[in-house]
Amino acid sequence: MCLGIPMQIKQIDGFNARCEAKGVERDVSLFMLQHEELADGDFVIVHVGYAIQKVTPEEAASAWEIYDEMLADPATGAPPLGSTGNA
């Protein structure tokens, strides 16, 4: 199964951006969203290094809540390591 990961744009340089999610930063291609207005602070769904969709902060937070539930320890219900509860 493949998942798109919500990430926040930290810095844009042409069709490339530095994005962050849960303390992890990655370089992401914005080429597939070249006709979308994007700015630092926006949230995008990232799949295999490409931003594929712009989302609201609420949608990003909701996706992370679901991912945290899926990754929680079934015995204790504890969230996965590195989880902060926000996108």
Describe the structure.
- The chain has one helix and five strands.
- A hairpin with a 2-residue loop joins strand 4 (43-47) and strand 5 (50-55).
- The chain is elongated and about 45 Å long.
- The chain starts with a strand and ends in a 16-residue tail after the last helix.
- The chain has a single domain (5-71), classed as SH3 type barrels (Roll).
- It is of the alpha+beta class and 87 residues long.
- 17% of the residues are buried.
- The longest helix is centred in the last third of the chain and has 15 residues, at 57-71.
- A five-stranded antiparallel β-sheet has the order 3-2-1-4-5, covered by helices on one side.
Low-pLDDT segments, ≥5 res: none
> How many beta-strand segments?
5
CATH topology: SH3 type barrels
- Intertermini distance: 21 Å
* Secondary structure tally, helices: 1
Name the structural class.
alpha+beta
Q: Radius of gyration, Cα only, in angstroms?
A: 13 Å
Give the overall shape, derived from the CA principal axes. elongated
Pattern of helices and strands:
EEEEEH
For this structure, what is the CATH class?
Answer: Mainly Beta
Count of the separate structural domains: 1
The main sheet comes to: 5 strands, antiparallel
User: What is the share of helical residues?
Assistant: 10-25%
Query: In which order are the strands of the major sheet placed?
Result: 3-2-1-4-5
Mean pLDDT: 90
CATH architecture: Roll
What is the beta-strand fraction? 35-45%
